[in-house]
Every structure is written in C-alpha cells, then in structure tokens.
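User: Fold this; tokens only.

Assistant: Input:
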Amino acid sequence: MAAPTPRLRPATAADLDFLWALHVASMKPYVEQVYGWDDADQRAMYEHDFAHAKTQIVEVDGRPAGRLELRAHDDAVWLGNIQLTPERQNQGLGSAMIRAVMADAFAAGLPVRLRVFRINPARRLYERLGFSQTRETDTHIYMQALP
C-alpha cells in the first residue's frame, strides 16, 4: 500500500498545542526512561526549542499528522525531529519523508545526520533507510546517511 501523500507547511504559534501533544505522545516514554519526565520542565524546554526551531507541520488530507524539523548546516542536513501521530505511524509516511529529505540532501552532495535515543526503536528504521552509526553517548546514537 502506498504511503499517504503529505503536505508540509511552516508551523505557527497556533500549532503549539498540537505539537506539544504530539511530543508527549511520541517522546514521553523515552524521556521518562532516560531522564525522567516533569511536565512543567518539559513544556518550558519544548516552548523554548519551538521558538528557535524551523518546524514544519506534516498534513495529510488537510489535517495535522506530524512534524518535521530540519537543520541545514554547511556540511550536512540534520534531521532534528520527525514525529507522526500514532494513527499515522506504520503507514510508510515517515519512511517516505525521510527518503525525500535524503534525496534533496544527496542532490546537494550533503549527508543527512540525526541522533536518536538508544532505546528508541526508530533506530531500526534509520538503519533500514541506510543510516549508520557514527558515535554514541550514554543516551543517544548519532547516525548519518551518505550521498
């Protein structure tokens, strides 16, 4: 089955509640295990990061379905965040979006880099898509895909 076709648009302050709920749904289990979760601290950090990030809303059929955050550097494209709502996961949408990011970066001769919690099963998806580990910390695996 083909992945749904996403549309990207810039996130605005009006999206903050959706993005916060998405962050909680997709990241809270991992943050709890690695650092512990405090709602007030997490919300404050999240709002600070949102104010400084270039986040795009992923829409499918006109409805918010996730977020994509890319950070362009001179030497690479960083996949900062890719999160999908639970009902949009496991449909090929995330894979298709990552492949599109990789195609654009590779066309420019740039690798794509990311970091993922060591305990996050998304790491297997990244490996299937051609990412390999470049380094690790106690909490994260850093990965890249080369053109």
